[in-house]
Design goal:
The complex is a heterodimer of chains A (about 190) and B (about 800). Chain A has about 190 residues and is mostly helical. Helices cover about 50% and strands about 5% of the residues of chain A. In chain B, helix 10 packs antiparallel against helix 11 and helix 12 runs parallel beside helix 14. Classes of the chains: A mainly alpha (about 190), B mainly alpha (about 800).
Chain lengths: ~190, ~800
Amino acid sequence: MGSSRSRMDDIPHAQQLIHETDFSAAHLLRLHQRFKLLDKYQTGELRPRDFGAIPALALNPIGDRIIGAFFSPGQETLDFPSFVRILAHFRPTDPNRSRDGTQQELANSRTRKLKFAFQLYDQDGDGKISRAELLQVLRAMLETQVVEEQLQSIAERAIQEADLDKDDAISFDEFRRSLEKVNIDHKMSIRFLK
Amino acid sequence: MPLRTGSAGFGRSLPERGLLLLVVLVVLEGFFLPHGAASSPDVSHKESLDNHREADVGHNFTKKAFPVLSLDYHHIQTPFEISLWVLLASLMKLGFHLIPRLSGIVPESCLLIVVGLLVGGLIKLAGEEVPPVLDSRLFFQCLLPPIILDAGYFLPIRPFMENLGTILMFAVVGTLWNAFFIGGLLYAVCQIQPANPSDLHQLELLPCLLFASIISAVDPVAVLAVFEEIHINELLHILVFGESLLNDAVTVVLYHLFEEYAGAGTVTVMDCFLGVISFLIVAVGGVLVGAIYGILSAFTSRFTSHTRVIEPLFVFVYSYMAYLSAEMFHLSGIMALIACGAVMRPYVEANISHKSHTTIKYFLKMWSSVSETLIFIFLGVATVDGPHSWNWTFVTVTVILCLVARVMGVVGLTFIINKFRIVKLTTKDQFIIAYGGLRGAIAFSLGFLLNKEHFPMREMFLTAIITVIFFTVFVQGMTIKPLVELLAVKKKQEAKRSINEEIHTQFLDHLLTGIEDICGHYGHHHWKDKLNRFNKKYVKKCLIAGERSKEPQLIAFYHKMEMKQAIELVASGGGVKLPSAMPSTVSMQNIQPKKPPIAKSAERALPQLTRGREEEIRNILRSNLQRTRQRLRSYNRHTLVVDPYEDGFNELLIKKQKMIDLEKKIKEMNNYLTVPAAPPDSPTMCRARLASGRNTDFKPAQQQKGNRICEDPQAYSMKPASGTVPSIQVDLASPQSPESVSVIDEFRRANREEDDQGLVMRPRHRPGGPNKKTEEEGDTAKDPQKLMRCLSDPGPSAEDDEDEDEPFLP
């Protein structure tokens, strides 16, 4: 991976990160190595263009949205702790782990995972997926020449199915309900991050 | 006589009568078979002799009476007996489902074995020789392939691939463990008791291992039969079922290996090494052979658009040949068949017609169902047939060892596997997997194949195999259902996939692929994405005909959903709640009843029609369709009744697109464009009136509405208050209806005649602009009228006589 190997001392706030995100030390090291690899000019922070350099991501239809999700609105740079916190969403859920009432909800809980995905749809951050936003996503995913009316019908149908309070948009609750049957823990987890 | 007693019971309920009917049938079949087999050969033989003599000697012989009616069973014996067995199997299946109580408690497989036992017993009682029904060749070449093909073609690929690692572990490592554990311990047990030497002491290690390898494989037929009835959740089902399919490779290799070397007596390390290589070749080779035939089949289906009737045949024949080719090289035929079905399915389904798809589905289900039934019945018959050699020690030890080995294997493997799985297997899951390891007819057939000289203990083996099969099918098969209930194992979710799920699942796939790329981790999603890209870029172009090759998966899914809904709607008569959308280019619906006038305009869901109204609509439709059909016959422009879902589907989409464009143009010419004055008694109008739920007196819109554009009663627009646009839609007509014919053919004709002009409305020989209402109303009204008519009118009406000289579209 990276040309230089990280050590735990290189990583800022390592212990705090481990505690917060439940990554193991080995995983954190691996992520740090990856971070340094992406950070070509060794600035200690990542910029959108660093992500853009990943070739496979350019082919991804929602690649730009994913990159955008890493950067909080207004921010131009991404430091390592934020990088790790976002990736913590994709850890496999551990059913045996007991949760403290006082502790913050784990980053990789089902709700948090869904929330992350929801935010990728909801670009303007109003808490709802409007028809226009859904159409945008559909257009991006169905890259080939698709008739606009087909897209409209599909979007219409999707909203009809999911929209229970008839406000012509999909709220987070409705989003969650429509994915009840899908095993999110399985679908939104990377085994690497265990 | 049984019939007499049956008819005497007037007060008995249907199930009891069904049971009696069953018994009668069994008795009849039991009598007929041996009787037929035994008596006729003599008769026919004698007759042929007589005829011969007569022919030889000519007319000198004293003439016998000309045989007006003769019985020549021998002539048709084989096909007759086969048909009789198949008939028996099917009638049994019918019978069981007439008796709901029984089929609820006892799984079908058990009942069928019992029937087989009965029939075998009857044949034996009659003193005849039981036909060697479970002949290995018959089994492996005729009875097994349909079941496996059915399983492979309808294999749920996604869960299978996601759990492939687990399945392979269970199949390969689990079966190996079973075989060696059982074989070794069996040999050890046989060797104990040096005091009283029995037959068992003659049993060598290698025959023990061979026997163990036969008995250790989980049987797909039995698993399918039992699991089908318990509706367990998808994960467990695919784990056990996948294991039963993939362990065929292991079984084949072990079987051949031990069979070869049982004669020699020893197995060296070299042989083991060769065995491993052989396993790889058998497994990978089988899959390759299957995949090659699958691709060939997909490629062939690309060109079948003109000969739709034989499409299913390609699927069946290519698959069968894949199986036979694999068997020819002693590769794993089962894996070849699975690979063939799984590989060809997405491409074939994109190419073939809807009807062919239905045909394939039903033929496969029919054959596999009959095969399965026959296999179990034959198991019963073969049990009665013997030859048996019962040995208490051997048999009981075998049964116990099978159970123990299975449990230990599953527990141990799960412990290792869970380290690599995201969704772990719980104890309940493990129990079900262990308990679901049923043995079946494959084990018996393999045992049957053993050579008597090399294996003097063959009969003992067969007895033990049959005992294990009976034990697993009866005991485990009957108790698994209550156990599933008791343990509250998750059941299968019956609901269909919604479009939301589909969209979001794809979205999440892309998301995870992106995250994996960011992490630099080549995981599951990465490879799946790569495979999808490769598939889209190269493979689909080769194997799918026409424009469907570029169709994204989401669109295909959406098409399927709409189609299904449309069919449901027609079948249910229009009372179904449908989501309405804008005029969709995709959906070919709708005979959608409009809401009654009192309903709120904002509501999108359509309320139900009252029953009386439904009946009315149906009657009118029926009579009108008849009328239109008659009309069509007199005007033979259309030569072929085209299926609206099929050929020309894509052209239809293009034309629809043009229509939508045209609709936009119409929008612009809004002032003078009023509703076309279609003749009031045309069937389309009648239908429209009724369907629109308005009062049925037709007032020509021009009189009514003057300037304004009113809602076109002919348009079945889904958004009721979209107001000003007369939306153009295609009726969903039944396939025989001429509606569809006219639509498609119109477009074809338009295509031929006018290249790309589509449906252009040109004002006919009149000057002036759109403001001259009064003169133009008539003419321009006719244009949209023509437009409407060419969309929905079945054929010529009296008014069209004037247009016959011109091309239909101006």
